[in-house]
Amino acid sequence: MATAARKAPAKSKSDGKSGLSAPKPAEFTKDEELAAYRHMLLIRRFEEKAGQLYGMGFIGGFCHLYIGQEAVVTGMKMALIDGDQMITAYRDHGHMLAMELSPRGVMAELTGRRGGLSRGKGGSMHMFSKEKHFYGGHGIVGAQVSLGTGLAFANRYRDNNNVSLTYFGDGAANQGQVYESFNMASLWKLPVIYIIENNRYAMGTSVSRSSAETDFSHRGASFKIPGIQVDGMDVRAVKAAGDLATEWCRAGNGPLILEMQTYRYRGHSMSDPAKYRSKEEVQKMRSEHDPIEQVKARLIEKKWATEDELKTIDKEVRDIVADAAEFAQNDAEPDPSELWTDIVL
Amino acid sequence: MPIEILMPALSPTMEEGNLSKWLKNEGDKVVAGDVIAEIETDKATMEVEAVDEGTLGKILIAAGTEGVKVNTPIAVLLQDGESAGDIGKAAAPAKVEAPAKAEAPAAAEDKAEATKPAAAPVAAAPKTEIAADPDIPAGTEMVSTTVREALRDAMAEEMRRDGDVFVMGEEVAEYQGAYKITQGLLQEFGPRRVVDTPITEHGFAGVGVGAAMAGLKPIVEFMTFNFAMQAIDQIINSAAKTLYMSGGQMGAPIVFRGPNGAAARVAAQHSQCYAAWYSHIPGLKVVMPYTAADAKGLLKAAIRDPNPVIFLENEILYGQSFDVPKLDDFVLPIGKARIHKTGKDVTIVSFGIGMTYAVKAEAELRGMGIDVEIIDLRTIRPLDLDTIVASVKKTNRLIVVEEGYPQSSVGDHIANQVSQRAFDFLDAPVITIAGKDVPMPYAANLEKLALPNVGEVIEAVKAVTYR
Ligand SMILES: Cc1ncc(C[n+]2csc(CCOP(=O)(O)OP(=O)(O)O)c2C)c(N)n1
Ligand SMILES: [Mg+2]
């Protein structure tokens, strides 16, 4: 395999390490702000609806909502080119919507119907789309990190200029295979961006109770992988970090870590009592850092949109979600013969 | 149009709940995220969060109302410009507010609190009279106890008895256990002996084995055994083999425990039975209880055992109640099966959750005049073949029921051993019933098809008894 280093972007300086630091938030055009608003709102409304359908008994098992973290996938998606891959864990609905998987297909998978992306066989935690370069949807904490590194290996092997976006949580960041992957990725200069979604908790365990090093951007230090902390509640900051990281990887510098500082508003899964944090803490994030409200405020302030125009977008988004929910509730269950298909080729 | 707020389900199995409290009054403004009410299920008090904004127009179900069915309208939310007069026009379409947070014991991953969706084949407690266990002195007072409580009591008793016993795992301490099995242990024994770990199964399993080699007696909880696959090298290569490799100098007195097997609707990566996997390994003991009494007596035995013991629990059984003897120190022997019901026409051998199918099939078969003997293995390794063979010599027919995969299953091994040791006594081939040979699907209908069912057991019994 070719491992020769390619030209590094001008940004890398000489502080002995990479010299990378968090870039300033991207300057968004009106269209970009409006697109970010719409995409994040779609995820928010979709997740709210999923929560409702769970409440009505249409969705079973585990259902992990992404509410609060919308800016992370939305900003990163804005930095991708065609063919870049994405892989994540079980909190995956937002990632799939960002990768433009059909809301109907995602919702119908949540309800376990034949129109679901995995034909009802995978459920909330296990969805994939070869066409959209989305590689799942994984239920075992940390496993997707090695897999995402493998996607990057394939990119390097084919020399195709694509980058693997490998997402994992603050809790997952303590799994051993993460570091085994870091070492290989750095050794072989694989084009992978490790996106650590630090939402401060792994189920009921806060990062300070689980992690000796809580600055996750430093987690690659032993492997010479640079890292940046990013305000994951600000979609512009995420986009700027995404641009920097994709450029870094495409230039042949190997992996990069982006620690996205974010927050999940809901419990870990649908029935988590969430007694490990205060209501005030949640309310403070919601009222002061909400990713969607931030964009909304800028749009209004710059007079790029009126309240009414934003309401229209909200209505359009709600219609998409309502249609997906309608479909997901009424679509048929998989044919019983599906039990025996797709096991081996 | 005003929006009706409906009574939410907090799991696919919840059918009704109590509306314990309204936190907003009629006329109050509500924004998304506000907690508007508290509802109580049998296990948890959950807060109901508003999803939409508006004004609480009318409360339809008063605080304190019990047994409110899921999807009953509980209030009407008025939107901008609407008044009480518009209430009659409330939109019927489902507008269930999202259940947000619970206050009482409810585990993050314990969605159904140990019950399956109505569609699933496993339901409530067995009706079969459980035969007396010869290991329990006659006349002992019995106390109805859930499997969950029995497991917790077993650990607490052993921790009180032996200062070298400690428990470690994900969410075992402050969160009180993802499935609430370690509830109260942190409070009683403190953080030195009840240790929350990061999500690093391979690492903490190895740490546990090392501590055991140094003479401590760890109980390592896996949040579920699906995640023990991350750690299986330490379990097999380090824990199971050290005694042999060291020529008997040192072993690993350790218990690896946690829920095993399919839960409800959690799909392929979270639903498999490891009984057969671990039963393959010399150097391990493998225990898989069904009743609360066995869970307690065998967990205590496992903690005292000088060998590594794999202790396989089941999420769906956690909430089920059984009689547990009230004894100061109730320890059962590992490696001994229990005759759950005596009978003369056919033997059904099972273990763990598999017993639920056996027990239900027995009740129906009794109605057809077939007298079934049920053996609960309790321990998979070492396997109590003597008890099985003795039963087969009496009934001449054998069915084995388990939820795991069919190839190289526990049932396969038993069928083989019985054919070697009691071939002349068999009046029919041994039938093994297992989960289907497929990864567990998510869809409700497919999941049901993937698991064994009572009908299969009944058909098998009819086949071997030539009915
Ligand atoms: C190997 C493994 N261990 C444990 C679990 C159970 N589990 C599921 S999610 C989770 C917490 C993970 O937290 P984090 O990585 O921070 O992601 P977040 O849920 O916050 O998105 C745990 C312990 C699992 N699925 N896989
Ligand atoms: Mg987290």
From TrEMBL, chain A:
Residues 39-336 form the Dehydrogenase E1 component domain. Its cofactor is thiamine diphosphate. InterPro entries: DH_E1, PDH_E1_Alpha_Subunit, Pyrv_DH_E1_asu_subgrp-y, THDP-binding. It catalyses: N(6)-[(R)-lipoyl]-L-lysyl-[protein] + pyruvate + H(+) = N(6)-[(R)-S(8)-acetyldihydrolipoyl]-L-lysyl-[protein] + CO2. It is an enzyme of class 1 (oxidoreductase). Pfam families: E1_dh. The keyword Cell wall biogenesis/degradation does not apply. The keyword ATP-binding does not apply. One of its GO terms (molecular function) is pyruvate dehydrogenase (acetyl-transferring) activity. SUPFAM superfamilies: Thiamin diphosphate-binding fold (THDP-binding). GO terms for biological process: pyruvate decarboxylation to acetyl-CoA. Signal peptide: none annotated. Keywords: Oxidoreductase, Pyruvate, Thiamine pyrophosphate. Its EC number is 1.2.4.1. It comes from the Bacteria. Residues 1-25 are annotated as: Disordered. The pyruvate dehydrogenase complex catalyzes the overall conversion of pyruvate to acetyl-CoA and CO(2). It contains multiple copies of three enzymatic components: pyruvate dehydrogenase (E1), dihydrolipoamide acetyltransferase (E2) and lipoamide dehydrogenase (E3). Heterodimer of an alpha and a beta chain. This is Pyruvate dehydrogenase E1 component subunit alpha. It comes from Rhizobium loti (Mesorhizobium loti).
UniProtKB/TrEMBL annotation, chain B:
Its cofactor is (R)-lipoate; thiamine diphosphate. Residues 95-125 are annotated as: Disordered. Residues 2-78 form the Lipoyl-binding domain. One of its GO terms (biological process) is pyruvate decarboxylation to acetyl-CoA. Residues 95-107, 115-125 have a biased composition (Low complexity). GO terms for molecular function: pyruvate dehydrogenase (acetyl-transferring) activity. The keyword Calcium does not apply. Transmembrane segments: none annotated. It holds the Pfam family Transketolase_C. InterPro entries: 2-oxoA_DH_lipoyl-BS (IPR003016), Biotin_lipoyl (IPR000089), PDHB_mito-type (IPR027110), Single_hybrid_motif (IPR011053), THDP-binding (IPR029061), Transketo_C/PFOR_II (IPR009014), Transketolase-like_Pyr-bd (IPR005475), Transketolase_C (IPR033248). Keywords: Lipoyl, Oxidoreductase, Pyruvate, Thiamine pyrophosphate. It catalyses: N(6)-[(R)-lipoyl]-L-lysyl-[protein] + pyruvate + H(+) = N(6)-[(R)-S(8)-acetyldihydrolipoyl]-L-lysyl-[protein] + CO2. Its EC number is 1.2.4.1. Heterodimer of an alpha and a beta chain. The pyruvate dehydrogenase complex catalyzes the overall conversion of pyruvate to acetyl-CoA and CO2. This is Pyruvate dehydrogenase E1 component subunit beta.
